[in-house]
Amino acid sequence: MTQSSRPAGPPPRGPFAAGMAPPQKAKSFGASARRLIGRLAPQKRLVILVMFMAVGSVTLSVSGPKILGRATDLIFSGFIGSHLQPGQAPSGEVADMVQKLDVVPGQGIDFGALAEVLLLVLGLYIGASLLAWLQGYILNHVVQRTVKQLRSDAEAKLMRVPLSYFDKQQHGEVLSRVTNDIDNVAQGLQQTLSQILGGILTVLGVLGMLFVVSPLLSLITLVTIPLSLVLTARIGKRAQKGFVAQWKHVGALNGQIEEAFTGHALVKVFGRRDDIEAKFRAKNDELYQASFRAQFISSIIMPAINFIGNINYVAIAVVGGLRVAAGAMTLGGVQAFIQYARQFSQQLGQLASVSNVLQSGVASAERVFELLDVPEQTPDVPGAMPAAVRGEVRFEDVGFRYKADQPLIDHLSLIAEPGRTVAIVGPTGAGKTTLVNLLMRFYDLDSGRIVVDGVDIAQVPRAEVRKKLGMVLQDTWLFSGTIRANIQYGNPGASESDIMAAAQATYVDRFVRALPKGYDTIIDEESSNLSTGEKQLVTIARAFLANPSILILDEATSSVDTRTEVLVQEAMATLRKNRTSFVIAHRLSTIRNADVILVMDNGAIVEQGSHDELLEQRGAYHDLYHAQFNRAAAPSSEPVAA
Amino acid sequence: MLWRLLKTHLRPYGKELALVVVLQLAATIATLFLPTLNGDIIDQGVARGDAGYILRVGAVMLAISGLQILCSLAAVYVGARVAMSYGRDLRGAVFHHVGRLSAREVGKLGAPSLITRTTNDVQQVQMLVLMSMTMMVTAPMMCIGGIIMAVREDLSLSRLLLVCIPVMVGSIGIIIARMIPRFRKMQPKIDSVNRILREQITGMRVVRAFVREPVEGARFETANAELTDLALQVGRLQVMMFPIVLLVFNASSVAVLWFGASHVADGSLEVGSLIAYISYLMQILFSVMMATFLAIMIPRAAASAERIVEVVDTEPAIAPPAHPVLPTTKSGVVELRDVEYRYPGASAAVLTGISFVARPGQVTAIIGATGAGKTTLLELIPRLSDPTAGTVLIDDIDVKQREPEELWARVGMVPQKAYLFSGTVASNLRFGNPQASDAELWAALEVAQAKGFVEQMPQGLDSPIAQGGTNVSGGQRQRLSIARALLREPAVFVFDDSFSALDLATEARLRAALRERTRDATMILVAQRVASIRDADQIIVIDSGRLVGIGTHDALLQSCPTYVEIVKSQTEQLEVAA
Q1: Which of A403, B5, B129, B200 is the most exposed place for a label (fewest CB within 10 A)?
Q2: In chain B, what is the straight-line distance between the N-terminal and C-terminal CA atoms, in Å?
Q3: Model-level pTM?
Q4: Higher confidence at residue A312 or residue B224?
Q5: Which residue of B has its CA nearest to A642?
Q6: Do B370 and A335 touch (CB under 8 A)?
């Protein structure tokens, strides 16, 4: 194996892949929720800060009413005082009521003291609001950062899944996970994180107060807690199911819509609008049913908890009333207890309703995690290609199958010498494209190996292999952007003069100059500002700029006019110069000029050699040549089709 | 925009809406009644230790509470139904409308954006409706009830309401006003995230071949960062709402105590009334707060509504005629009369003065340089675009006067880009003719020279096809899309360079079989190779949007220099090769 002379090692992708969470099959609310919380870990400090602020904010807003009570007392005692003659002591019933107040007979409301108390309360409230604001502010950052990372991870994941994954998925469904679901996770986190924290703290605080006031009555209240929890859990479980179904249907509908809009014109011309709409309606209806169920079930929780709160209230009143009658408790005590119990059940209800939002968010998170857990292509092995690749390619006893029971390529061996052009011919389905896919390492071999300049390409990172390979496909995929940016795609570091040189060498320059905006013309999916042939030239320029050592050309398309075709051919010839090229050949000129012709059939190479050698053998190539090219080569002979 | 969208699509649910109002009214009255009973239990029952009274009133209280729950559950049930139906209807309406648009409008709005508008944007408006369903009666009732009680208790103190309600509404209003423009910017960012991802998925092979994963990652990162940035801005405004509401809430109660104290001092207000007053105030402000939660949703829903309305308001450039004309003869004759086409806003025409007749049983081939307007010309025939001047007639009737569905049933089209839908081979073939039997499918495959490879597929007709047809080769895709068009059994076939990915031998076999099968049909095809068209009944030569020659191969060789040039260039090329 050739040793790499490059000082810079390969990109460290191995450890990244190894650090991935293991795929979790058994999906549940708990597991997904824990994993979602785990995603907050990088912002642990901020989350802890938010927790402290929540404690502070709750403390301030709970103590507010207590201090405000002092203000009421001041007014009350001033009111009583002003009704008494100076020196007269309160007596009878009034005395009982005011014994705890500082009533100074004859003196009215102490506005100074009142102002003091009120200012203190106001200060507390401002503090509580400030804390709540700060808490929200930080949380906003935590959530948005987390969600941004989630989106990036999902996108990066798409780059690592095997290509076969996309064969089985509707694009819109995958898209929905990254857009709709992550959006929903964001909303869920934002709305629940602070409230859950504050809610739990308040519940605990109030529970403490209850025990201080009356341990006996607290026991009654305690009975309602498990009742509420069981109820919340049972309803919640169903709601969770509903939300999972809802977001699944959102994804399915998105897939349906994406495909319908992509094939818009076809749907119309084939008169399938009604049919497509019926399909859409069915999916739309399923989504409606699912989201209604989720919404309704989750909305039951809060009223149910409130009802339990009311039962609790009556029970406390009965027991409390009996205790008061027996003289074991004061009226004030019962009253305070009842107030706290109210607050308690209110908070419980609040928590339950927050849990709805959480259920929905976690259901979405689960779908995002599902995407993140898709098995990836085999991890890259660290290693490097030789810095200067000569371009010798050897297939050694290669075997490959897309489906386990269907061998596609078996025991295939071939050698391509550096700088040579290898033409691959054969009927459609013979395995020509598969051969290219294997060389590009789009798929992994089942047996044998492919060796480039002595290096087994399975033993180096994929990126390393692909950097040495250039590819021009039949599908002229260009992204929406300027022509310049699309050429530069092959080599982001290329200078303007490199781009121009590539454009000139591949005849792109000629037609681009005729465009009003030149290289700044935007290519987009829908508008047809470039013809197919022109697009193909751009893809050739893109490959040219990438300057690979080995080329793979799928020259099939002739959806270009003859003049452009000549240009495309010449551009490809320029591109092939001094490079090892594999050409899926359809043109006689290419085949004849090739150094080696591989004749493929049924996944095997049935013949190989030069044009003349193969013709002499009078084998498969001979037949193919005469069937395909003879008549085409002589346009003046009888018509091709009768 | 938002209002219009709400009004139009909520109209069918008038009865349900009324029911929600009644149910919520009942639930709210019950809720307001409960505190009085609570008070009674304490004053009359607990204070006197009267267990019997407590149990009696407690039972009443539980009954009312039960009633309240039933009512609110019913309200939630109906409300959720209405909100979800609303979302369903709106999605359906948008989807339906996009189906009516022509390719031009779909291109202008962009498929990725249309997808977000149909799903995400509708979702935003639907959420607003759902929230309104639960709050629209409760919040105003509590607010109005509270104000009435407060004013009755102390009119002069109620002037405080004139301060605190405007302060609250004002500050919320300012925040919302600042949120709307940001939301307006945010939805397009969701579009671009969607667009980039969609491009990456469709171009995954190219991305990987050029090792552009890092670059694509960076491109996505930019869009992601922009979206996150706006979300942060919006979030920052959003988190201000609750603390402000809380502060106004609390400051008001402090103010009531301060001003109320002097009323108590001068004897115009009882202490008990002061306490009651505070609870009324709380109730008013609580209802305002509920409205705030609703208000938080309005900006995003409004921005989304604008985007939805933009789609719904886009008039399809190609509208079906008001009074469609049915053809009396179904001859299948296609005629173009002095047709001109120019892109909207373009000064130069793509096509000018094109006239020809294509007859049944004949092959009409169109040839010309790239960018000569051949594809545009083909699109005029099934009326995917309308010519800017001149007319296109099929069966002697202007295509503009025909019912589109009926017209399309007459025309079988094989577009340049052979797009297949996710599903199976069979589902793609039946796309053109759902009733076709398996035998018919095989027959069409045979003509399209696709029988061989479909037979070799492990599951035959039921073999899976990935979206776009990416799991079969370009040549296979083209042949499947030809078979799909054959199954339509149309009178007119339009092939837009549909043999380009086939080798010459396959193409020759295919065209021979095609001729056999479509003996009586009008065949119009665009091709690049002279070999593909030299036996056509008439060849139309287009150069820079003009018709420069029409006739058979032999006639054109005599009369049309452009054609001679094309033939020469291809022959030379072959001679060079040979």
Answers
A1: A403
A2: 68
A3: 0.80
A4: B224
A5: B512
A6: no
